[in-house]
Structures are given as C-alpha cells and as structure tokens.
C-alpha cells in the first residue's frame, strides 16, 4: 500500500490560485466520496484551510492513484492540469509521511509553531472517517501525525512564545497582572486588529469589554460580538479610569491619548496599575504617557522586539522538533514497510513451497520403487535446498524493511520472482516514477 499527498499551500501558490481549490465543511464530504469512488484510491482525506489544500491518499498503484487525484482536482475547480507543475507539490512514501508530520507540528505553517493546524488535521481525519473515505493505512498515518503534533508541542514548547501582534499584547498584559481574570478592558478602534486582540483578551478571562470608535455603529457591532459596551469616542476619557487594560488602534493622524489625560486617570485609580498598548501607526499614545507612575506603555516596536525574540525561540524549538519528527518517521516507516515486506516474504515462501511440491511429485512419480524412508529423505533434501536458497533474500528483505526504501526492495523481489501478493500490484517493469525519496534529501 502506497501513501502520497498532492497539495498547494501559501509557499507554493498565491492566494488567487489557492482560492480556486478549497473545500468548505458543507462540500468536503461529497468531495471525499467522489475521490474515494476512484478505483485507484483505497483511502483519502482532505485538509483544506485558508493557507493550504492537501489531498492525502492510500493506493495499491501509485501511478494510477496520482492520475486519479489530478483528475479529481481538475473536476473540482477551474484549475487546469498544467497548473500542477506550477503550483502543486507531490510527496510519496517517506516524504509524504514527513510532510504530514511537519504540518501537524506547525513547522509548515505561515506562522511557525501555530497551534490551530493540529486541530485542523484532526478534523480532516475525523471527516474522512465519518464519510468512510479513510482506510487502515490512512488511519494509522493520521493518528500518528496527531500524536507527533502533540509530542512536539509538549516537548519543545514551540507554541508557548507568541508571535502575533494581538496575542503578544495580551501576553504582555498577563505578565503585568499575572492573571487577566476579572480585568476590565477598553479598546479604542474597531478594526481587525482590535477584534483579534479582544478575542485573545476574552479567551484569557477579561470580564468587561468597552469599545470606543469614531463610528459608534462599528463600536456597537464589535462590542456586541463579545457581550461588551460601546461608548462614544468623545467620552472615552470618562471610562478610562474603569479600565485595567487599554488597547489603542485607531486611524488617527495625531495622539488621541496624552500624558495629561492619563495623569487624571491614574489619580482616580488609587495606584492600581494601568496597562496600555499602542498598536496604531502612527501612534495613538503620546510617548510621555509611559513616564506616568503605574502606567505600563508598549508600542508596536516594543511588541515587535518581543515577537523577534519569540521567533528566535520558536526556531530553536523547531530544530528540536525536526529530530522528534525523524524519530517518528522511522517508527511509522518501519510499520508501513512491513505491510510490503511480510506479505512478500509469505508469497516468496509459498512459491518456493509450491515449486518444491510440484517437482517432488514429478520425480517421485518416476521413482516408484523408493521406500517411504527414501522418499522422506528426498523430500527433506528438497525442503533444505529451497530454504537455503530463499534464506538470504528473506534475511536481506527483513533488514531493508526498516529503511526508507524497504517498499522498493519488496517490489523488486516481487518482480524478480513474479510473486502474486494480495493487495499489491507488481509490475513486470518499473514504470512508477518516485520523484521524491529520502536519498534526494
């Protein structure tokens, strides 16, 4: 059984190409059923996110399986077959295993070490199971990938250092307050960055959300998403004293928060700290605000410095993660190659036994005067000859089973001895092109 993946992602194709091949929750089930109906596909799963669409398959005939997926892709969108060379990547056997493991670990993501992708891999696998599109090989592959993703995060902490502006802002707030449970927040501006920051704040326990924006209607829309309160932009200074965390991200061309304003706010807060993050460019907050006692002020450059340090930490963790992935690949590959090797050994022994029995029957039919003891001696000799002849090939194929090329040695043995192996299709001549093998790395 061969495994492979065909896909495109943020590195191989621009957004205008990626958006031509996407599968929503409402369409992915039918897509899986269409793909599974292909005779060459024994199992399949589709991972479709904003940054990638990947089709994972198991097949007994790699060449026919790839052809079936290419046909499926061209039938699923306006993409033409020649776009494969330009935008699609294809990985098989070792490289396919490595690719899915790296995806699940967050090493192939736009943001190194992101956590969301592991849940997306798990969901893609679950949907494949729900629609009975998977098979035993694909099941084991995805289950192992999910295990790898968990292990990488647990052992390396690759996802512990925030690398987005909004999440880093919230993490800095946690450092100031230790816990955000019950804290009150005021957001100035109602754009995308404000929304992302609010999501992280609420996820970390912030109890009160206030939103001020020059467009009161937009402030209401954003506040309603989080069960918060919209306030007129002109009255924001009235509410500042009630906030523990102020995030400012407006489109103003001048300072909207000045030192004199914050001095009045702090006088009302009884020395309670105020955390203030200025995400806007140009800045919303007068730099002198940071000199006010009890105020913790950070701007975009401060956040970027933290992000750069965290990215460096994630890169260190990624190096450790690659070692973990190599270990897991070898374990999975050994299991996968056993699916080729064990049936091949059984078929080889069976063929040797069949030839032995046929020739014994022919010879003993001519030697009718032999005693039972003599017949047994000839039979033992024949068995010994067959076993000795097959000993080295079987020993070697077992040895190669744990290597990345184990499946190739099995195929060669099947072709040399013309073995019929259940669930595997041998070819009289090699016509499957393995474009990516471990030796090319």
Automatic annotation (TrEMBL):
Other information: During catalysis, the active site Cys acts as a nucleophile attacking the alpha-carbonyl group of tRNA-bound glutamate with the formation of a thioester intermediate between enzyme and glutamate, and the concomitant release of tRNA(Glu). The thioester intermediate is finally reduced by direct hydride transfer from NADPH, to form the product GSA.
Protein residues bound to substrate: 49-52, 109, 114-116, 120
Residue ranges occupied by any Quinate/shikimate 5-dehydrogenase/glutamyl-tRNA reductase domain in the UniProt entry: 171-306
Matching CDD domains: NAD_bind_Glutamyl_tRNA_reduct
Assembly mode: Homodimer.
Reaction equations catalysed: (S)-4-amino-5-oxopentanoate + tRNA(Glu) + NADP(+) = L-glutamyl-tRNA(Glu) + NADPH + H(+)
Family classification: Belongs to the glutamyl-tRNA reductase family.
Entry annotated with the keyword Cytoplasm: no
GO molecular function, one term: NADP binding
Keywords: NADP, Oxidoreductase, Porphyrin biosynthesis
Pathway membership, UniProt: Porphyrin-containing compound metabolism; protoporphyrin-IX biosynthesis; 5-aminolevulinate from L-glutamyl-tRNA(Glu): step 1/2
Gene coding for it: hemA
Occurrences of domain Tetrapyrrole biosynthesis glutamyl-tRNA reductase dimerisation (ranges): 320-419
Signal sequence interval, chain numbering: none
Domain notes: Possesses an unusual extended V-shaped dimeric structure with each monomer consisting of three distinct domains arranged along a curved 'spinal' alpha-helix. The N-terminal catalytic domain specifically recognizes the glutamate moiety of the substrate. The second domain is the NADPH-binding domain, and the third C-terminal domain is responsible for dimerization.
NCBIfam families per UniProt: hemA, PRK00045.1-3
Keyword Glycoprotein found: no
SUPFAM superfamilies xref list: Glutamyl tRNA-reductase catalytic, N-terminal domain, Glutamyl tRNA-reductase dimerization domain, NAD(P)-binding Rossmann-fold domains
Alphabetized Gene3D superfamilies for the sequence: Glutamyl-tRNA reductase, N-terminal domain (3.30.460.30), NAD(P)-binding Rossmann-like Domain (3.40.50.720)
The organism of origin for this protein: Heliorestis acidaminivorans
Active site positions: 50 (nucleophile)
EC number: 1.2.1.70
UniProt binding sites for NADP(+): 189-194
Protein name: Glutamyl-tRNA reductase
Residues carrying the site annotation Important for activity: 99
Domain Glutamyl-tRNA reductase N-terminal as annotated: residue spans: 6-156
Biological processes, Gene Ontology terms: protoporphyrinogen IX biosynthetic process from glutamate
């Amino acid at each position: 059984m061969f495994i492979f993946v065909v896909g495109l992602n943020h590195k191989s194709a621009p957004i205008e190409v990626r958006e031509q091949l996407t599968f929503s929750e409402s369409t992915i089930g039918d897509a899986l059923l269409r793909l599974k109906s292909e005779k060459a596909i024994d199992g399949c799963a589709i991972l479709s996110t904003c940054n990638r669409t990947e089709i994972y398959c198991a097949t007994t005939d790699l060449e026919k399986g790839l052809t079936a997926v290419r046909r499926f892709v061209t039938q699923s969108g306006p993409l033409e077959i020649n776009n494969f060379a330009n935008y699609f990547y294809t990985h098989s056997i070792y490289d396919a295993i490595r690719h899915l493991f790296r995806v699940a670990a967050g090493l192939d993501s736009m943001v190194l070490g992101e956590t969301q992708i592991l849940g997306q891999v798990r969901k893609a696998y679950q949907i494949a199971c729900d629609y009975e599109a998977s098979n035993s090989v694909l099941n084991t592959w995805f289950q192992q990938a999910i295990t790898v993703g968990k292990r990488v995060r647990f052992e390396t902490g690759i996802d512990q250092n925030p690398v987005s502006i909004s999440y880093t802002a919230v993490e800095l707030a946690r450092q100031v307050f230790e816990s955000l449970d019950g804290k009150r927040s005021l957001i100035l501006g109602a754009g995308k960055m404000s929304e992302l920051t609010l999501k992280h704040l609420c996820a970390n326990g912030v109890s009160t959300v206030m939103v001020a924006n020059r467009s009161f209607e937009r402030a209401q829309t954003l506040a309603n998403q989080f069960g918060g309160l919209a306030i007129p932009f002109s009255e924001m200074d009235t509410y500042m004293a009630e906030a523990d965390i102020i995030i400012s991200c407006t489109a103003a061309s001048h300072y909207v928060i000045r030192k004199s304003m914050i001095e009045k706010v702090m006088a009302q807060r009884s020395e309670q700290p105020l955390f203030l993050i200025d995400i806007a460019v140009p800045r919303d907050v007068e730099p002198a605000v940071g000199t006010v006692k009890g105020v913790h002020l950070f701007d975009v450059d401060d956040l970027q410095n933290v992000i750069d340090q965290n990215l460096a930490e994630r890169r260190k963790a990624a190096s450790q993660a690659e070692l973990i992935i190599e270990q897991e690949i070898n374990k999975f590959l050994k299991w996968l190659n056993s699916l080729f090797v064990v049936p091949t050994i059984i078929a080889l022994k069976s063929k040797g036994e069949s030839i032995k029995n046929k020739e014994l029957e022919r010879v003993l039919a001519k030697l009718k005067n032999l005693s039972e003891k003599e017949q047994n001696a000839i039979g033992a000799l024949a068995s010994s000859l067959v076993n000795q002849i097959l000993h080295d090939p079987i020993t070697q194929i077992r040895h190669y089973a744990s290597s990345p090329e184990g499946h190739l040695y099995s195929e060669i043995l099947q072709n040399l001895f013309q073995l019929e192996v259940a669930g595997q299709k041998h070819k009289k001549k090699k016509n499957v092109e393995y474009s990516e093998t471990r030796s090319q790395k």
